[in-house]
Amino acid sequence: MNRMTVATVAVAVTAVVALGASGSTTKSGSGSTGTVAPQATAAAGTAAKSNATTQPPTTPTPTTIPARRVTGKAVTLGAGTFAGGTDVAAGLYDVTPGAGQSGNFIVSGTDSYDEILGVGGAGGVPKVRMTIAKGDSIQISSLSQVSFTPVTAPLVTTHTPVTLYAGTWTVGQDLGAGRYVATPGAGQSGNFIVEAENVDEILGGSTADGGVPSVSVNLQTGDVVNISSLSAVTMTPS
């Protein structure tokens, strides 16, 4: 074989080797058993981790009305003179007379009350909501039994209908802030006062005596409603 023939054979062999190497590379890159690129593996891992740590949305906790703080201590007294903080612990009370009794009940001090307690006389009321403070003077006459019961009723903070009676009531605790129409119970007449709102009316009774059948009032949180000689006053939102 001459030199030209040997050279031609060498070139052919080289081409075949090159072609085989090229085909192997293509198969390796496209076959199902090929190696997955590192970048793709990292991306898949990140997506899986993200899905695993995703938390469901939280439901807001509903607003709850705080519980009333009960103050005072239950006690029953008879006729006589007594002191707040000594004979009656300071606190908020509903005060009621003994069954079938009627007489005078007067408190002088931080808050003042002057009621006919019982239903026997004109203007008599079956119970009074009142705050007793240390140093108050309590006078009871013509009554052998008067019960002081600490108030445990839930707080009322919404602008909704509510019925009040003789005594003192705080807006934001016993009724919600807002505008109301106050009307007395049938056949009743007494005083309805909210000093902070410049309201001072005889609620019920005849117009000749200065009485009015109803009164509209705007109440703000912290206002105090004073009611006397009335066993029921309906507060209707308006």
Give a brief outline of the structure.
The chain has 238 residues and is of the alpha+beta class.
Write a concise keyword list for the protein shown above:
four-stranded antiparallel β-sheet; five-stranded mixed β-sheet; alpha+beta; 2 helices; 238 residues; single chain
Chain oligomer state: single chain
Task: Assign the structural class, choosing from mainly alpha, mainly beta, alpha/beta, alpha+beta, or little secondary structure.
Answer: alpha+beta
Identify the strand order in the major beta sheet.
Answer: 10-16-12-13-14
Low-pLDDT segments, ≥5 res: 1-34
Looking at the structure, what is the overall shape?
globular
Helix content: 10-25%
Strand content range: 25-35%
Mean residue pLDDT? 83
Helix count equals 2
Number of strands: 17
Instruction: Determine the N-to-C terminus distance.
Output: 122 Å
- What is Rg? 44 Å
Largest sheet: 5 strands, mixed
Order of helices and strands: HHEEEEEEEEEEEEEEEEE
What does this structure look like?
There is one protein chain. The protein is α+β, with helices and mostly antiparallel strands and 238 residues long. 18% of the residues lie in helices and 35% in strands. The protein has a five-stranded mixed beta sheet, with no helix packed on it. It has a four-stranded antiparallel beta sheet with strand order 1-8-3-6, with no helix packed on it. It is globular. The model is unreliable at 1-34 (pLDDT under 50).
Set out the fold topology:
Blueprint: H1 3-30, H2 38-53, E1 75-77, E2 80-83, E3 91-97, E4 103-108, E5 113-117, E6 128-132, E7 137-141, E8 146-150, E9 162-164, E10 167-170, E11 178-184, E12 189-194, E13 199-204, E14 211-212, E15 215-219, E16 224-228, E17 233-237
